[in-house]
Design a protein that fits this description.
19% strand; two-stranded antiparallel sheet; five-stranded parallel β-sheet; Rossmann fold; alpha/beta; 43% helix
Amino acid sequence: MSRANVLLLLSGSIAAYKACTVISRLAQAGVTVQTVATPAALRFVGAATLEGLSGRPVFSNLWEEGRALDHIEHARAADLALLCPATANTINRLAAGLADDPVGALFLAWELKQKPWWIAPAMNHHMWQHPATTASLAKLRDWGVRVLDPVDGPHACGEDGAGRLMDPEAIAAEVLAALPK
């Protein structure tokens, strides 16, 4: 039996550090984890950390020499994709079909009807409730994307409300339960 493969994508949120727990738990369970990070995500969590946790180089630049087809190859190889944390910006970009970064390109290359694509949003509660975000989430759900809804709680900005990333241990447990055995 081959190991399960997860594509773990990060966008630029202070909650990116929590994704490191998800990566670690999946890797400890024997899952092959390929990380993908937006430039903004790498401002919060370094590539060395992601590579150290996953044991694989981070895919973060569509235009890096020798990586022109990575978005296709990673989409083919993975059993499940998880965007964690998913910012309002990235959610809205996915719903618009923009593919000018690795996250967007992978989303468009993903077989939504064949394999699960999940997002775990993290953002300020006003951003979570904004009509643009709610409309984009409805569109993504309609396309078959599973949303691991954020929880109520304090935010890094000092405000409180829905938008806090779901507990990383719970996220890892849900992913592990969904992977092929």
